[in-house]
Amino acid sequence: MRFIISETLLEEDSVQQLTNCAKLKGVVLAVGLPDLHPGKGYPIGSSIITQGLIYPHLVGEDIGCGMSLVRTGIAATKQKAEKWYKQLLGIEGRAGTELEEFAAKAPFEWPKGRAVPPVEGLKDAVAARFGTVGRGNHFVEIQELFQVANEELFKQLNMDQNQIYMLIHSGSRNYGEKVYEAYTSKHGTKPADISSPEAAEYLAEHNKALAYARRSRAVIAYRILSQIENIDTSWITEGSSCVIDTCHNYIEQLQAKNQFVHRKGAAPGNAGMIIIPG
């Protein structure tokens, strides 16, 4: 077990939850990260590495939850908060049939250069939640750049200090919830051997939930921006306005044979730039 967090910030409950995870069968390493805090039985802000087994309940319901940082193309001097507020009233509801079709449209890249697989056959409530933010700590925020700490990295990201950006925090909504419930209703908190049909079935649906979440964040960004700027839906499929998109709830296979990292509120530090809201 390892902690990458100041001792003064450690909470007794989160330490106990991480300790319990470290004792699970097949766990190679349990890591508490700077945002470590207690969850519903299992810690948030943690990465758990296993050998030959996966534990869906360590990731939980919101598979693919993550953040997108998006260019708006709007100059910081042109922001009109009160006008935008009025334009955005009522946007909390369903995205609508046209935008829901973007769950399955191909090709789709978010950001540009990262292909996102289609998610087909969405129906009823799962289709209705696509392109919506959700509740809890999920949000959409309009941001103005205050300080650039590293000019070289800033240029690599093709960012503009005089432009307004949008930050979206959302996940797979009730799609991920259904994937989680389909597994736990049969197996509870038992792990799945990676060579088993149960693991294959879960991971296939898990990966669809990741795609659902990424595509949904793109549609959320479009829904907000199209209310205050004159853009059409080609903006979504181009993907060039997305600066960064990262997930912090998912299972990832490591290069080491049959090892898997379960990320819960923990974005990878080895996959490019990440977003740390605050």
Structural account:
By secondary structure, the chain is an alpha+beta fold. Helix content is 33%, strand content 24%. It is built from 9 helices and 11 strands. The strands form 3 sheets. Strands 1-2-3-11-10 form a 5-stranded mixed beta sheet. Strands 6-7-5-9 form a 4-stranded antiparallel beta sheet, with helices on one face. Strand 1, helix 1 and strand 2 form a beta-alpha-beta unit. The radius of gyration is 19 Å and the shape is globular. The model has no long low-confidence stretch (mean pLDDT 94).
Short descriptors:
278 residues, five-stranded mixed β-sheet, four-stranded antiparallel β-sheet, alpha+beta, 11 strands, 33% helix, globular
- Helix proportion: 25-40%
Oligomeric composition of the shown chains: single chain
Radius of gyration: 19 Å
Tell how many strands the DSSP assignment holds: 11
Number of helices: 9
| Overall form | globular
Give a short account of the largest sheet. 5 strands, mixed
| Helix/strand order | EHEEEHEHHHEHEHEHHEEE
Q: Mean pLDDT across all residues, rounded? A: 94
How do the strands line up in the largest sheet?
1-2-3-11-10
How much strand? 15-25%
- Low-confidence spans: none
